[in-house]
Amino acid sequence: MKAYQKRLAFVAVGLAALGIATALVLNALNSNAAFFYTPTQVAAGEAPKDRAFRVGGLVRQGSLQRHELTATFVVTDTARDVTVAYTGILPDLFQEGKGAVAQGRFDDQGRFVATSVLAKHDENYMPPEAKHAVDQAGKTQP
């Protein structure tokens, strides 16, 4: 085998390895990406039924119910509501009337079951996705 053939084979093997590594990284990123949807988008059927996503907005006043470690609450963008069930310890700053983002998926009964819940971290902060959702819903209401 001549020198240029060895270099060509080495470059071809390197490009093939790079292509396989890129495909594996893109596949991992795609399968772990959780896109944000507002309650209005969820009600319109825009949210995926077969994979995890995030839903956010304000936690409706009076909607928080606890049964042992399972908490059920309603996230709203003031136009539509999504009922969320979460098993675990809610963040310390989680409150009714404040912003929250829940990540999870729909179960077989059509309930949104969260695997994680994020809450605001100070008096003036709301997660950007939740603030945008509330702002957009406010613009569409008469």
UniProtKB/TrEMBL annotation:
Q: Which UniProt keywords apply?
A: Cell membrane, Cytochrome c-type biogenesis, Heme, Iron, Membrane, Metal-binding, Signal-anchor, Transmembrane, Transmembrane helix
Cross-referenced Pfam families = CcmE (PF03100)
**Where mainly found?**
membrane
Q: Where does heme bind?
A: H121, Y125
Segments in the Extracellular topological domain = 29-142
**Cytoplasmic-side positions:** 1-7
Q: What is the membrane topology listed in the Swiss-Prot or TrEMBL record?
A: Single-pass type II membrane protein
* Annotated localization: Cell membrane; Membrane
Q: Which Gene3D superfamilies match?
A: Nucleic acid-binding proteins (2.40.50.140)
What's this protein's function? Heme chaperone required for the biogenesis of c-type cytochromes. Transiently binds heme delivered by CcmC and transfers the heme to apo-cytochromes in a process facilitated by CcmF and CcmH.
Q: How is this protein named in the record?
A: Cytochrome c-type biogenesis protein CcmE
